Amino acid sequence: MRTPEDNHDYAHESSQRSQRAGGRLRRRTAAEASQFVGNKERLYVVLGQVGSGTFGKVFKASNTANGRLVALKLIKMEAEKDGFPVTAMREVKLLQSLRHENVVQLYEMLVCKGTVYMVFEYMDHDLTGVLSQTQFEFTEAHLKSFCRQMLAGLAYLHHKGVIHRDIKGSNILVNNRGELKLADFGLARFYQKRRKSDYTNRVITQWYRPPELLLGATVYGPEVDMWSAGCIMLELFTKKPVFQGTDEIHQVHVVYKIMGTPTVEEWPGMASLPWYELLRPAEPIPNRFRELFKKWLTPAGLDLAEKLLTYDPERRITAVQALEAPYFNQEQPPAAAPVGLSSLEGEWHEMETKRERDKKRKREEEGGGVVEQE
């Protein structure tokens, strides 16, 4: 075990390695620079914040004994009067039951000075961040690999009886070997496969939320994750979220403008949803999906994305069915992991991407330039 002096030197060296030129990991504050987390058996030095999970901040850290990088998820305790947060307990229980190459691994739980941390394997980037960088150009085969890995992770979760309920770019992690893993299970739930349960519809980040939840459904299953997966598939190619609504009402109309208004034949259960009448447009809107995305996706890719974005949740393709699609098994090129990501300078996360975008927007506003709209 290193002495505190050794640990301080090690922390400095690790920090320097993590802050390579062009990097996207936020520099540590003075407080973080001397922050150690752990105990005599396990000690970590915090290298910087890389994100914010559903219920707590996420930090990059290094094991002082062996140098292994980890992600420390700090669990918020201040609002809890009765001890450990129920939401965090649920996430821990879920993660302890999961082990798959496309699901992030929970190593251990750590208590330090009254603060509880979840210790995860470290991934270099998240999908939102890595898609925003311009150093490495993704090929069709690379993006197909990301899509297949995401679906493989979802197929495993659904097989284990778990709905993720927050699939989005910042919750999909990528390492420099081109491996993709689903993360942040703060909103995930076990579900009963033989019958759908009643849940809140106030889940899934708005841009990735399926239409049945936007229209008020509370009885649902893993098909809600599949709509989100369809959104991510499009985002892989367009490099930005496709359904960018400003609020829930606008979100429905953004979906309609691209996918068209659904008919009763397409979605028989639509008319029984609580907010269907309220949000029904006065005139039918045509489906423009293929027209808009044919320049990015191949014919088989369009077919798969369209099946993922099927309005009727009962007819929406499952993860297992998606993995069997011609897009992966017949159409060229075959999927190939982007192992060249190891050449990237720095680490790319949504938090830094947002910060850089806000800086750019502020400069343009101050300079009187045109602010780019997403």
TrEMBL record:
Similarity field: Belongs to the protein kinase superfamily. CMGC Ser/Thr protein kinase family. CDC2/CDKX subfamily.
Name of protein: Pkinase-domain-containing protein
GO cellular component, one term: cyclin/CDK positive transcription elongation factor complex
Stored InterPro entries: CDK, Kinase-like_dom_sf, Prot_kinase_dom, Protein_kinase_ATP_BS, Ser/Thr_kinase_AS
Region feature Disordered, mapped onto this chain: 1-25, 331-374
Binding site residues for ATP: 73
Reaction equation(s) it catalyzes: [DNA-directed RNA polymerase] + ATP = phospho-[DNA-directed RNA polymerase] + ADP + H(+); L-seryl-[protein] + ATP = O-phospho-L-seryl-[protein] + ADP + H(+); L-threonyl-[protein] + ATP = O-phospho-L-threonyl-[protein] + ADP + H(+)
UniProt KW keywords: ATP-binding, Kinase, Nucleotide-binding, Serine/threonine-protein kinase, Transferase
